[in-house]
Amino acid sequence: MPAPGRAWPLVGRAAELDDLEVQLTEATDGPGGAVLLEGEAGVGRTSLVDELESCARLLGIRVRSGRTALGELGRSVDDGHARLVVLEDVHAWDDGELAVLAEASADGFPARTLVVLTLRPVPHRAAVTHVVSRWTRAGARYLELRPLPSPSAVELAEAIVGASLGPALRGAVSTAGGNPRFVVDIVTTAHDTGTLGAVEGGVDAVVPGWRGEVEQTVRERLAYLGRDVLGLLSTASVLGVSFVVVDLAALADQNVEDVWRTLRHALAAGVVQARGDRLVFRHDVVRAALYGGIPDDERRRLHERAAWTLREAGAPRAVVSAHLERAR
Q1: Among 43, 78, 157, 231, whose CB has the most other CB atoms within 10 angstroms?
Q2: Domain 14-144 is found in CATH 3.40.50.300
Q3: How far apart are CA 131 and CA 52, in angstroms?
């Protein structure tokens, strides 16, 4: 394992990095430009812009980052030097800073400068939406950073442990749904709890009981969603990996409109996604973490209520029976 605190390698992002490097070259050749880089929490926005900053420095491009770099957006600083200005986690800025950032787009982009704004796709405050609208109208490009494909997620895990993954550890990594932060959480937790052991051809999780530590870490990662969203998602986890919103509303004893209003935050954040008439947890590890965080008595009560709710909705007898079994 690499030393604690070491940055993990950038894996599976060649296409996105190439895109950003093209934008950097075009912008710093004269006209200037901007990119809105959006992606769910933990998907690797910071890792990607860190790599872009390294590329910029190799090319002799001045790099400015952080909220103090707002001053670099004024045309008065144009001294002929090429610049990369990185403004991260714009969704978390206060309204005053956002007002300045929105106004900075009024005269177009500074010459020979690429501005990269990163943010999460959660439902935004009005001030954040205003910034995105202003920069989009000014001509900013949009780049969405999606979860890693399965082979890249495995590659990242193997780069961390320095060996091929055995079947148990590979299966655990697959529950991350391609989110690099969850991949790192799973592998480092397995290491830190003494779970990893040598097997033929690599390493694997050979000691049971470590998944609870992963689930606790994931629950902490999800805290930004807020109590209402997490409470409703925890209830949804009782229904399984996928669920029908009408069933969730009945189980949570809420009306459907209120459930949708709450779930839009989870949809925007990439925690769940729509599949036809149902919603699906995008990361199995998230569903397991939420389910594992429900107290035993409450979980049994929810399973009992789910059994009757689903029976009334016409669910197969086997599904109803499974919930009744878990209610005991």
Answers
A1: 157
A2: yes
A3: 23
Q: Which of 108, 44, 56, 122 is nearest to 85 (CA)?
A: 56
Where residue 198 falls (left for φ over 0; alpha for ψ -120 to 50; beta otherwise) is beta
pLDDT digits (tens, 9 = 90+) for 17-72: 999 999 999 999 988 999 999 999 999 999 999 999 999 999 999 999 988 888 77
Domain ranges of the chain: 14-144, 150-209, 224-326
Q: Biggest alpha carbon distance in the chain? A: 73
Q: Which single residue is written with the structure tokens 């007898």?
A: 317
CA angle 34, 90, 109 (to 5 degrees): 25
Say what the pTM is: 0.91
